[in-house]
Amino acid sequence: MSESLVFENSELTEMCRYVVSSGGKRLRPALCILSYFACGGKESDVPVSIGAAFEIVHSATLIHDDINDQGEIRRGRKTLHKEYTLTKAIVAGDCMFTVGFRLLSNVRSKIVDYIVEASGAMGAGEFVQKDNEHYSDVTEDDYMRIISGKTAKLFEACAKSGAYVADGTHEEVEALGEFAYNLGLAFQIIDDALDVTGDPRDMGKAIGTDLLEGKPTLPIIYAMQDKAHGSEIRELFEMPSIEHEDVVRALRLISSTDSIRRCMDKAREIAEKAVVFLDSVSESVYKDSLRSLAGFVVDRDR
User: Fold this and answer.
1) What is the DSSP letter of 131?
2) Do 281 and 287 form a contact (C-beta atoms < 8 A)?
3) Are 262 and 221 in contact (CB under 8 A)?
4) Is 211 exposed, middle or buried (0-12, 13-18, 19+ CB in 10 A)?
5) What are the C-alpha distances in Å from 235 to residues 133, 238, 249, 261?
6) What is the CATH number that goes with domain 2-299?
7) Alpha carbon distance 162, 40 (integer Å)
8) Nearest-10 Cα torsion for 118, 123, 124, 127
9) Rounded to 5 degrees, what angle do the CA atoms 16, 18, 20 make?
10) Distance (Å, rounded) from C-alpha 250 to C-alpha 255?
11) Rounded to whole angstroms, how far apart are CA atoms 256 and 195?
12) By CB atoms within 10 Å of each CB, which of 51, 138, 216, 295 scores lowest?
């Protein structure tokens, strides 16, 4: 990916490469590449290029997300706007979007349709989440709609793109899209649960940031339903500004409820649903890897 991020301005190149060099799970390109080969694709350059495009677009959204959330640490390093400047980080994110789309300029137009639709869904999902910060009446269905846009639709687009350029059948393309979409939902639920229970050293960032920012995540929604502690958690969540000691207390209260268990059960249920869609795909080592990916998503600790 880094070789695609070259600009006339050396600092801009450095900034964009700083973002993609910080690691990450690379699930999106993995979905694209595995779906491609699961549908009989033969040329490795094709899915790798498309997967890189999706990962670069995803990385661009993270730059802007960190700015919106005033985040300071991601993957164990300073966020881009903290390492450089706010205004330059905004521009770097914009430039990374253009690189992502440029990498798709030589592929079939359908792939561009997929990424455009997913990008729009991501923006809409983030907007709705932002619009509901510190709003304690957000429902589980509301939450699922938010993460559908901000996470699952891009997962879906990655898998469908890989399957499509491999000339997979319509049934295979749709099945792999459904698999990845549901995997994205499960991934985000686990991600939000880890913001309560994760180890900051493993996560590469502080925990409790969702609560601090007032994001209505599923662990918080479930915890606010608790008979013993729900009212206090709700009160803390609704506070427009919350002190560190209150965040610590809220995390302790959430952990004392059945919220995390319910989140894990929900994520596993969705991941199991995802795997069923793989029945429409022929057996192969690539299908096995996709199945294993579903297990990784729900069992991870970071």
Assistant:
1) H
2) yes
3) no
4) buried
5) 13, 5, 12, 22
6) 1.10.600.10
7) 10
8) 160
9) 75
10) 8
11) 15
12) 295
What's the rounded Cα separation, in Å, for the pair 107 and 166?
12
* CA separation, residue 167 to residues 47, 70, 281, 287 (Å): 12, 43, 13, 16
b/e burial code for range 220-236 (CB count within 10 A of at least 16 → b):
bbbbbebeebbeebbeb
C-beta of residue 284 within 8 angstroms of C-beta of residue 37:
yes
Cα 249 to Cα 87: distance, rounded to the nearest angstrom:
35
Residue with tokens 């490795």: 44
At 76 the pLDDT is 83
pLDDT > 80? residue 1: no
Structure tokens at 9: 């301005």
- DSSP, collapsed to helix, strand or coil, labels residue 39 as coil
Domain boundaries, the chain: 2-299
Q: Note the helical H segments in the chain.
A: 10-20, 27-38, 45-69, 80-83, 86-102, 109-131, 140-147, 153-165, 170-197, 200-203, 209-213, 218-223, 230-238, 244-256, 259-276, 285-299
pLDDT in tens, 112-171: 999 999 999 999 999 999 999 999 999 999 999 999 999 999 999 999 999 999 999 999
Could you give the percent of the chain with pLDDT greater than 90?
88
Checking phi first, is residue 146 left (phi over 0); if not, alpha (psi -120 to 50) or beta? alpha
**Which residues is 54 bridged to in the sheet?**
none
* Under 8 Å between Cβ of 237 and 210: no
Q: Rg for the chain (alpha carbons), in Å?
A: 19
CA distances (Å), origin 18, targets 137, 150, 259 = 39, 23, 36
